[in-house]
Amino acid sequence: MKVDLALPPSKRDLRLDLFRGLANWAMFLGHVSTGVLAWFSFRNYGFSDGADLFVFISGYTSALVFGRKMLEGGFVFGTTRLLRRAWQIYAAHVLLFVFYLASVHFLSNWFSAPDFIDRFNVAPLLNAPVETITQGLLLRYKPLNLDVLPLYVVVMGAFPPVLWLMLRHRNWGMLGSLSLYFAARQFDWNFSSYPSGAWYFNPFAWQLLFVLGAWLALGGANTLHFLVRSRTVLVFGAAYLLFAAVMTLAAELPELQRLFPRALFEAFNPNDKTNLAPYRFLHLAILIILGARFIPIDAPGLQAAIWRPLVKCGQQSLEVFAVGIYLSFIGYFFLETTSNGIVAQLLVGAAGISIMTAVAYYRGWSKRIEKSAHSHASQSAEENRHAPAGELVQLDHLDNKVVGAA
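-> C-alpha cells emitted (406 positions)
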C-alpha cells in the first residue's frame, strides 16, 4: 500500500520539536501565574494556546511514527505500539497525579494555607479518599491543570482504528472526525467528571485537532499546499489573527472592551475552550498555514543554537510536560506564600524553564546511553554466535573469573 507520508523516513521536521517545546513552555508559564508570566504565554494573544498546539503536533507525530509501524508490521503490530504509548502516557499521568495530590496536601498543611485545597480541587481527596483515588485512576477525577494527559490517553487509545482507516482513506477519517466534532457540540457529548461536571477538554471535540495533525502527516499537507502560497489566505489570515489578538486582549483590558459592541465581545468571551469553539480551531489552522509559509522545513535558522533548548524540550515532550505541570503548582505556591512581584515571577518562570530544559537534556542523554548499550549488547551477542567453540569457552571462563572477583 502506497501512503504519501509528509516526511521521508530519514528526515526529521525540527519545526515540530521546536513548537511542541514552545507549547510546553507556554503552558507552564500560563499555569504559574495570571500576572506577568501569563503575558509570556499564548493565551492573551489569540483564541488558541499551547494546549491546542500540543494536541495538534501530537497527532501529527503519532501518525508519522505509528503509521510507518502499521504499514511495516500490520494492524496488530501498529496497535500494540500505539497502546503501549497510551499506557506510557497513562503511567506518567498517574505518577504526576500522586505527586501532585501529595504536594498540595502537604504544603497546604505545612504552611497553614487550607484555601489551596479548594483552589486546586483536592478537597474530594479529604472527603472520600478511596473513591477519589479510584476515580482518578479512571481519569474521571482531575485536580486543577491535570486535564491534558487524560485527553492524550483517550485519543491515543482510540487512534488505532482511526489510523488504519486513514492509511487507506485519509479523507474519510478526517470527515468522520469533523462529524464527531459537530455532533458533540450539537448534542453536548462529553465525559463526566468526579465528583460533578464534565471534562474540561471534551475528547469528542478535541480529537479534531489530533486527527487534523494525523491527516496532514498522511498526505493532507500536500492537498492543502495551495493555501500556504495563497495571497488571499495570507491577507485573511493576518487580519483574523489581528482580530483574535484584539478580542482576546479586550478580556484583559476593560478600556479595550468599550471599542466593540457588547454582542460581538460576548460572542468570543469567555473563550469556549472545553468544546473547542470553531473560532478557536480556525485560529490554530491559520497559525499552521502561516507557519508553514514563513518557516519552511529546511529553514537554516532552525539549526541555530538559540533554539536548541526548545527543540530538546519538544523531543522529550512527555517528561517535560509532566515536570512543567508539577513545577507550575510549586511556582504558584511559592509566589502566593512569599512575594508575587514582577521580579519574583520572572525568577520563578526562569527557574521552571531551566529545570524543564535540564530534564529534557538528561532524558535525551539517558536514551542515547541506553540505545548505545543495547546496540553494543546486540553486537556482542551476534559476534559470540559466530565465534568458534574454543573462543566461546575462553570467554565463558573469563566471565566467570570476573564475576568471582566482583
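Residues 342-386 form the longest helix (45 residues).
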